[in-house]
Amino acid sequence: MHFSRVGVFLSVLALCAAQQALARDEPLWELGVGVAGATFPAYRGSQRQRSFVLPIPYVVYRGDRLRVGRDGARGLLAQTSEYEVDFSVDGAIPVDSTDEGPRAGMEELDPVVEMGPSLVIKLEQTATGRWSFRLPLRAAVAVGNDPLSTSQVGWTLHPSLDLDAPKLVGDWDFRFNAGPRFASRAYHAYYYEVASEYATPERPAYRAAAGYSGLAFHVSAARRFERFWVGAFLRYDNLAGTAFEDSPLVETTHAVSGGIGISWIFGESARRVEVED
User: Residue 8: pLDDT above 50?
Assistant: First the structure.
């Protein structure tokens, strides 16, 4: 798979993966295949949107420590009735420089994989769904293409308030989350810094700073049919007041991403496990 698709795959898998409803017995694993369409800004702050249609796997695994599902792939490190600590992965698509726009003539940016631990505090179970507070701290790694190489490009912190709402509308499961984003200077520099060799009269040199990285709102919906799964997501980022808002590479303080996918489920395990409410 070309790395230009890896970032999209990670984002779609993390945001649009299968969602489960109330406590019940389920197969230990399920496998399927499908197709997804998604649109993302080239980077947060860019007016240029990138759209993709690509095949995606449908993978659900309900192990004691390894979980693959609505949160993408995550390893459960510790769990009580009040909190969880897990290790999870997120990602961002590569940024291609063009002959036009604020990054004209600058180096292209590799896709970024973000990985690290998350603290999840279980707040309250209501008639609508389950509320929780999530605090993921992730190291950001840029993944090169030719030759294969990696480089650490900073850290991100994204606290959020989450609501899991199974069967909120008919048989559709919904998930909502919102929260601020923060990042290190190196992370902001990767996307928004302008080195002196790339400075022009229209694009002055700029040094990025650490700090506030925007406010994110996300909603996803999914429904499981007999042998099919359908899911969609929509995400909005507001970049007003961010540490990099005055970068010449920021064209807009709004960023919208969205996607929809459908998968055919062709296999499942004979072994069944109890799914937590």
Answer: no
With respect to residue 127, please indicate whether it lies within any of the assigned structural domains: yes
Instruction: Determine contact, residues 223/229, Cβ cutoff 8 Å.
Output: yes
pLDDT at 255 over 50: yes
* 147 contact partners, CB below 8 Å, separation of at least 6: none
Contact between 45 and 208 under an 8 Å Cβ cutoff? The reply is no
Nearest CA among 141, 124, 129, 236 for reference residue 175: 129
Which tens digits make up the pLDDT trace of 26-39? 788 889 999 999 99
The domain that contains 163 carries what CATH number?
Answer: 2.40.230
Q: Is there a contact between 261 and 35 (Cβ–Cβ < 8 Å)?
A: yes
Is the per-residue pLDDT at 92 higher than 90? no
Tell me which residue of 155, 147, 172, 174 sits closest to 163, measured CA to CA: 174
CB atoms under 10 Å from CB of 268, counted, come to: 15
- In angstroms, rounded to a whole number, what is the distance separating the alpha carbons of residues 187 and 207? 12
DSSP state of 7: H
277 in a structural domain: no
The answer as to whether 276 is a domain residue is no
* Cα of 138 vs its chain's centroid, Å: 12
Q: Model-level pTM greater than 0.85?
A: no
Q: What domain range includes position 192?
A: 3-270
CB of 84 within 8 A of CB of 76?
yes
